[in-house]
Fold each of these.
Amino acid sequence: MLPVKTTIDFPEEILHRAKIVAAQRKTTFKELVISGLAHTLDTPPKHEDTRRRERAARLIAALSKGRNTDSIGLLNREELHDRHQLF
């Protein structure tokens, strides 16, 4: 496989952080970018439903840590506004 040169404009902060990480890992910035890009390309994208389910599971787990686990049912606009005022 022949290498191909390209130009990418990185935000200064990200470039700075990436160079620090490369130095900490005793590698080059180029190798860090190549390995990160290869990982991204080799990792199949999660389906949106899977992401939503994972996010919902984390939310339910967080809410379950509280004492009030009873469903409040659907609220109309006024009830939502009234509840918001309580907090």
Amino acid sequence: MSTRLHALHAAGQSLWLDYIDRAMLSNGDLSRRIREDALTGQTSNPTIFEKALAEGAAYDAQLATLDGARSDREAFELVATTDVRDACDAFRTVYDSTDTIDGYVSLEVSPDLARDTAGTVAEARRLWQIVDRPNLMIKVPGTPEGADAIRQLIADGINVNVTLLFSIDAHARVIEAFIAGLEDRAAAGKPVARIASVASFFISRVDSAIDKQLTAMAAANPAAAETLNALQGRAAIANAKLAYRLFTASFSSARWAALAAQGAQVQRPLWASTSTKNPAYRDVIYVEELIGTNTVNTLPPATLEAFRDHGDVRASVTEQVADADRILSALESQGVSLQSVTDTLLAEGLASFEHSFVTLLSGLNRKRAALASVASSTGAPAVASL
């Protein structure tokens, strides 16, 4: 067992794996990680599935059974929901043993629905029914339209992972949507217990974007270079610490206490994009500096391995919060607009996931055509319908 990963879990942070593929579901690797690495959940997104489907032939047998008249989007939905359902089953013991606090697996609605409230709600409801597991989480982007969808889905009793959060304002909006959705549900006489949500706050991309600005500003103004360079690598963690402060305040209110008395669970902050993009920074910095109770960190495999090897554990997310305010104020005073940066990052994140989805569907189309060609040349029987 990994002492460091178990210590991280004991400090109040849940470890979720930011990766999924069929091989780990079938060869025992995921089950081993759950046993040995204190792993308590798993997340997926279009980019992850794009990589999984592009590598090897693990999905070929299932794709070969798909009626050729079915669309590539339907083909993807088949393989994605199968993987996520199997992963939910692998984590079911965690879900039960933690009394529904942990053990979740996330599946994202189509990226092209990010600005479509009604479309997001309809697809989320459909995916919820297809996977048919209580420890599924539906991922919904944290756009204004997404927030409206989140309120409806929580009122329906559907678990939600809010993704692509970069700004405190957006975080506040989805906390409000979550609480309001529970209130809607309670007002309808329905139970609010056993409904889970996480707010996925993206970390390293903030530093990458702001560091790039600071480097350019320092080159243009050497007299201010020392001040500007001292702010590099500090914005993302500061931003996340203020998000945690907002979380703590929001779920300490009298309004929340009324729901908690009915068994409602808090919407935990989830730290996403926690791999280190700048090799000059410690490779586990976005784990070590954001540890605290009621948090989740979704770790890419390489970051998880790095923390297992040399990560340090301390209750860090509540440290030097006043400094976090000062860091962000200093950036603003130097002309770096955090709001502008986070708006751009959200737009880029949505575009990136949509690009991955288009690439994924294109790859599936080629793979299905190749499988059909092999079947035709070998005289294989007609494939079954989905």
Amino acid sequence: MALDGTGWYRSHTLKLPHNLRLLMLSPSSPENNSVENLWDESRKESLHNCVFDSLDALENHLEAVMQHDNRS
């Protein structure tokens, strides 16, 4: 599992299963974190100049955008 290097992911008491390893990315390496690319594209393509009335409205918009992208 790749983690972005944020401090709250670190625990000295965490016991990992034998088949799981943690890969800590540098905190300053957004290009290695695929979620960062998703947000970058979303901001450029579908969230620019948008104002939402509620968090639910934002979530609905993001779901619609992601469903549309998966169909393409």
